[in-house]
Design brief:
The chain has about 375 residues and is of the alpha/beta class. It is built from eleven helices and 16 strands.
């Protein structure tokens, strides 16, 4: 999710001069079942003021606008009232953000246009706006105080403000995932069907994915024990990568449909023949199967799915025979790019190989056997 608007918002609040009172001293009354935004912005005479609903993905929805009078005074009736959320006021090029909890009826804003985009104005009748300002300002002043920020986000009376605080200041911290989820649970209870809750759900999913990728990358670092693989061969016998401990192993991700893979196979075969008696072998993981783009076309027709899988298996077996891949450790789950093993090894293109030492630890990661900058034979001899 893009956070440019979030960064703009909380940096803007650093220099705020925003104050908020408990009640409004407005003169105009709010519409029945609605709300009214009014006040006076000096030097904004004869301009227009817009009020937008602002969302976490930086999309907005214009709720209304009004003409500002010559003396800077304005009134913006909102017949449908306000919902819990974050809002943006615009006057010309100047913008300011507010948080409302939906209970506001009479909101008064007084200030001047010069410092409007720096929140140099006073707000009355919107306690949620005051709390929002106070929490963000404190977090900006000391972003390293995560415990204080966490407490503030989790205890926010307005759960949308709590979600905002987490998005802006947790910075994807893995240790705060439980806090993300606690805030989300609160948001789902109060605003389940809102765009805010849906966007925050997506945001958490992206954080969880980033955490998973970081963990996967850490597990694939040189010197780490290679994550185990246990998959069936063409004849149905399962082979485990860990069973090859004691040998130097080339873990090779390939497929019958991959031209560069087939081109590299003769080089791998030649290397295997040369060093197999000295303790070198190959563990081949095929990404044959049904391409993810084709799966929707098959629907739930198991007969068609089985036929496609059988066809993919035959192509895999034919490629093994044609390329004379002599080792017996050929495995595949026939899930193409959806293979969990490929994802576990962060395989985004093939051929992709890992060189594993006799202790089962990764010695070289994510390499292409035919790369001009990588000498497979030299690396194998180092490990043997």
């Amino acid at each position: 999710m893009k956070n440019s608007s979030i960064i703009f918002l909380f940096l803007t609040l650093v220099i705020t001069g925003w104050n908020c009172g408990d009640g409004a001293s407005s003169t105009a009354k709010a519409p029945a079942n609605g709300a009214i935004l009014q006040g006076k912005i000096v030097d904004a005479g004869d301009m227009k003021m817009f009020l937008d609903e602002w969302h976490f993905d930086n999309t907005t929805n214009v709720l209304g606008y009004t003409d500002i009078k010559a003396d800077g005074s304005f009134e913006l009736p909102l017949d449908k009232g306000l919902q819990m959320g974050i809002y943006r006021m615009r006057i010309g090029a100047k913008k300011a953000f507010l948080a409302f909890d939906g209970s506001e009826k009479n909101i008064e804003i007084n200030g001047d246009l010069t410092s409007f985009d720096q929140f140099g104005f006073e707000v009355k009748g919107a306690n949620s706006a005051y709390q929002f300002m106070a929490q963000v300002k404190k977090a900006v002043a000391d972003p390293s105080d995560l415990q204080s920020i966490k407490t503030s986000a989790e205890s926010a009376a307005n759960p949308i403000v709590g979600a905002y605080m987490a998005m802006a200041f947790y910075r994807g911290n893995e240790d705060l995932l439980s806090s993300y989820k606690e805030i989300n649970a609160k948001l789902q209870r109060t605003n389940k069907d809102s765009k805010y809750s849906k966007d925050f759900n997506q945001f958490i999913a992206s954080i969880e994915q980033q955490i998973a990728v970081r963990k996967a990358n850490a597990s694939l670092a040189v010197g780490q024990v290679a994550p185990d693989i246990n998959l069936p061969s063409p004849n149905g016998k399962n082979y485990k990568l860990s069973d090859l401990k004691g040998k130097v192993v080339l873990l090779d991700f390939w497929a019958s449909w991959c031209g560069p893979c087939r081109k590299s196979n003769p080089h791998v075969v030649e290397t295997y023949k040369k060093y197999k008696e000295k303790g070198f072998t190959v563990f081949s993981v095929s990404l044959d199967g049904i391409h993810p783009r084709m799966i929707p076309n098959l629907g739930n027709d198991q007969t068609k799915i089985d036929a496609q899988l059988e066809s993919a298996k035959k192509k895999w077996m034919a490629a093994i025979e044609r390329d004379q891949l002599l080792w017996e450790t050929h495995v595949s789950d026939l899930k193409h790019w959806n293979s969990p093993v490929a994802k576990m090894y962060n395989v985004k293109g093939i051929p992709n190989t890992y060189l594993i030492d006799r202790e089962g630890k990764i010695a070289k990661a994510g390499i292409n056997p035919l790369s001009p900058t990588f000498d497979l034979e030299t690396e194998i001899k180092k490990l043997l």
